[in-house]
Protein 1
Amino acid sequence: MQQLAAAIGEVRARIARAAQKSGRDPAAITLVAVSKTADIATVGEALALGLTDFGENRVQQLRERISALPEARWHMIGRLQTNKVKEIVGKVVLVHSLDRWNLAEALDKRGQALGVAVPALVQVNIAGEEQKTGVSPEELPEFLDSCGQLSALRIMGFMTMAPLADNQEEARPVFRELYHLQERLGQRSFTNVDFRYLSMGMSQDYEVAIEEGANIVRVGSAIFNLEQ
Ligand SMILES: *Cc1c(COP(=O)(O)O)cnc(C)c1O
């Protein structure tokens, strides 16, 4: 627990430094602790140590954890099959991985059935990597227009992942491009779209992401892989 507390403290300090460097309030940055590799006892400890938001990338584990720790705020950050949507809508605070139109429709349908809004981020494939899913920057305006017709779905911003790299500087142009895309699109009006969140940055690159405008970072191994 002491090691975990130290790791969390270190990540928080780095977040604060990166926020200050870009002239922003560290309190405006949400740390989502990605707990996919941690056991549930450790997630409970992290919660007791003051972390509030946790991210999972698989529906089965996410469901189990929501039941075990309902007081935490849970985020879905991984690829989501449309037939699993019913298991998470109404239970997670934010879906970060809205990467295609049929998923938007499925999320909306479930939200309407339950009478709840479904907050989601559009996953944008900035780097154009084929192995990553997401909406391309070119398709994004039309995608947002279409989402505006879905009454339960609420687009709250964008998420992206930078390519894996040894040096976090390589991620900077990717994050910068998403920030500028958000700025440009923010000048147009869309229905049911609120450009509030930019979810970008993981353990390897969250400081650069914050410097480039992220206000949600998804950090897993830097918190939970304590032997590294
Ligand atoms: C696992 C994961 C993370 C966290 O990655 P780390 O390198 O462990 O910080 C962030 N985002 C997504 C979508 C993930 O799947």
Protein 2
Amino acid sequence: MNNGINLQNCTIQTVIQQNSDSQVNWDVLRLDLIHPLISGNKYFKLKYYLSDAIKSGQKGLVSFGGAWSNHIAAVAVTAKLNGLSSIGLIRGEEPAVFSPTLENAREAGMDLKFISREEYPLMNRDPTKIAGLFPGYQVIPEGGYGEAGMKGAAEILQFEGVQQYDYIFVACGTGTTLAGLAYAAEEHQVITGIPVLKNPAWEEKAIDDLLARVKKHAGFTLINRYHFGGYARFNAELLHFMNDFYNSYGIPTDFVYTGKLMFAVNDLIINNYFPAGSRILAIHSGGLQGNRSLKPGKLSF
Ligand SMILES: *Cc1c(COP(=O)(O)O)cnc(C)c1O
């Protein structure tokens, strides 16, 4: 695809090379380099919602998210690049000053509608109702959760070279990306998710439900101790790690998802979680635009 979307940018970058000092090999798949706003896993999760919308002659996309949502930014720009209109149902009251994420969405032509925090969960749970409210618009559930989102995410494993890894790690919000990886993984690959929400009891079931829809019995692991207090929570240790990681490898991460993911993989390596000789791949799922919600100066990149 043209339009500034560059799948060929998605290189595999080595972080730790297996040698006499190091027992394992750790690489990162740089999906963050696809596009600044349709970044990482969002490109893949939206792919089939978009093609469904185009095939069925819809005039636009409608979806949900918060004021800093990577998903909302990606939906807005995806619609624009494909000549569709878009509606964003945003959680919370309309702010006096828009976040840079909402500014970007508005610039891409997204019609932003603010939904109260009481009403939002009810709307989000009922895609059929939303379809009735916005005829002509393809409804995309929050975070792209659904069979179309999973099937798009499964294509992440089609990048050349990805088949050789024993362990594939990804940050989890709704778990849609992880479901896609589990769906497409080869027998020898262990798919592991690092949830960024605090012990979400629903997450494992949500992933199993998606896999059941395609009659797939796939194994996966969730490691629930790297959420740093919950969604969008962080501390000085995490930011310090992210700065170090950037200074050492030139890989920027975001504090909501990929910073926690890389911290987790690094911590697991230090604590000898992996057998010697393991080949580990962390999926950099993008999300860098969200770092704009941090106070300036916190990150060195
Ligand atoms: C949205 C997002 C995720 C979460 O993906 P899910 O499929 O909802 O689990 C992970 N990383 C980044 C950077 C994201 O923007």
